[in-house]
Design a protein that fits this description.
- This protein has 121 residues and is an alpha+beta fold.
- The chain has a single domain (2-120), classed as Electron Transport, Fmn-binding Protein, Chain A (Pnp Oxidase, Chain A, Roll).
- The chain has helices at residues 2-18, 63-71, 101-110; strands at 25-31, 38-44, 46-48, 51-55, 73-78, 81-92, 114-120.
- Strands 2-1-5-6-7-4-3 form a 7-stranded antiparallel beta sheet.
Length: 121
């Protein structure tokens, strides 16, 4: 939990500055399901046929995942372009086949098997 808190308050703020321009990074724009506030979360995103896939390194119970599912979608800034995404789908894939090779290896080392698929509107 300390790492997650540090990432939320420090790493995410720094990453948020470069994420819209970097490959495999993006900024997810979502609405707080309780607060109704507009929120942004920088994270690793990977283009997939018809949308994007996000590896859930902290699992499916994070607030941003719950927000996206509750809203039925979100927006994403990826490579300086804004995407409207819908139909969030949680799935488990121990083979991590939607990920690029090097990312697949890294995620395997830390045991990530949960993913969120989002479709372009």
């Amino acid at each position: 939990m300390r790492l997650a808190r540090f990432n939320r308050h420090v790493t995410n703020r720094l990453t948020g500055l470069i994420a819209p321009w970097m490959p495999w990074f993006g900024v997810l724009w979502h609405t707080g399901r309780r607060s109704g506030r507009a929120l942004r979360t920088p994270l690793n995103v990977f283009p997939a046929p018809g949308g994007f896939v996000i590896a859930l390194t902290y699992g499916p119970d994070t607030d941003w995942v719950k927000n996206v599912i509750a809203a039925g979608g979100c927006s994403l800034t990826y490579r300086r372009k804004l995407y409207q995404l819908t139909a969030p789908e949680l799935y488990r894939d121990p083979s991590r086949r939607a990920m690029p090779g090097i990312v697949r290896l890294a995620l395997g080392r830390i045991g990530v098997t949960d993913f969120l698929r989002l479709r372009n509107v």
